[in-house]
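Human: Here is a favour to ask of a fellow structure person. Comparing notes only helps if you start from a blank page. I am asking you to supply a protein in sequence and structure-token form. Write it directly below this note and I will take it from there.

Assistant:
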Amino acid sequence: MSKPRIAIVGAGAVGGYAGAYMAQAGHDVTFIDPWPEHVEAMRARGLTIQHLKDVPEFTVPVKAIHLTELQSFAKERPVDIAFVCMKSYDTAWATTMIAQYLAPGGYVVSLQNCINEEVIAGIVGWGRVLGGIASLITVELSAPGLVKRAAGKSGASHTVYRVGEPHGRVSPRAEFITSLVALSDSALTTTNLWGERWSKLVANVMGNGIAAATGLLAKDATADDAIRAFAARLGSEAIRVGQALGYDLEEILHLDPEIIARAGEGDDAARAAYDAQRLADTQKPGGGAHRASMGQDMMKGRRTEIEFLNGFVVARGAEIGIAAPANAALTEIVKRVERGEVPASPDLIRGLRLN
């Protein structure tokens, strides 16, 4: 039996990183991306993966096409597995684009920052959707054909990937996707996709928007007392909304979610535990020596995903009567920076006064 045909829709940081290892292992992978220079670099030189430490650099030859060339798939074998690795605001059109080339039993895996499974299901149906989470992966598409990871492999110390079915049962296809992403780092098949998804959302809510608003590296934002406290407030609001929605939350940033929630609500003991863990993380080799993806987007002049992270928490909270003022404030700050009304600065956070 031939190997399944895999499409990586969005060969950026996460898609490029995970997909490179699949290609290196001999899988039939095609990278589809909207950045012409990136596509041409991959065609000419392959896809290069670098790590901050412990892992040798490697370059793997890959098949890469520009998204305008996707129509060529009509003359080829259908796609069995499509990883959608685009920004959340590109999810709908990217899924629509690849859906017409799926095999009858083909399916889509959302390997993205935000919660996009419902959007994908609205296009291909719930039976053809899986969720994939990349946690604390710290990767960046730093140049055409080059993905850098600001760490080594996490391995047993932290499970990077979680793969799950929306219905929560372990399936052969979920286990196969787990085996694919496990080629690049530690992975598990989860029966708690929605709890895992919301937990990852909380982690992103606590860091991504702050990076975009302040321009700081993760470790520098964490070291700032006022910004670290604000991050706890953001996380607390998101955790309480997730709990009210009925999600079973997992560990977040190496902390029990209840500690983050209480720290953001002013509990002194929880705040001490939160501060100790967050500051300890910055002392690990490479700890926080990266810019969160939304901070990268802001520096590159790209649209951010703020509405799909902090704005999403605000919207879901409003639906169930839970206010999220810190997340609302950060959403507006990032939008102002994005529009060029104010420059990114730590003072945008330090100057906030929230009741």
In short: The mean pLDDT is 95. The chain is about 45% helix and 15% strand. The chain has two domains: 5-191, 196-350. The domain at 5-191 is CATH 3.40.50.720 (Rossmann fold).
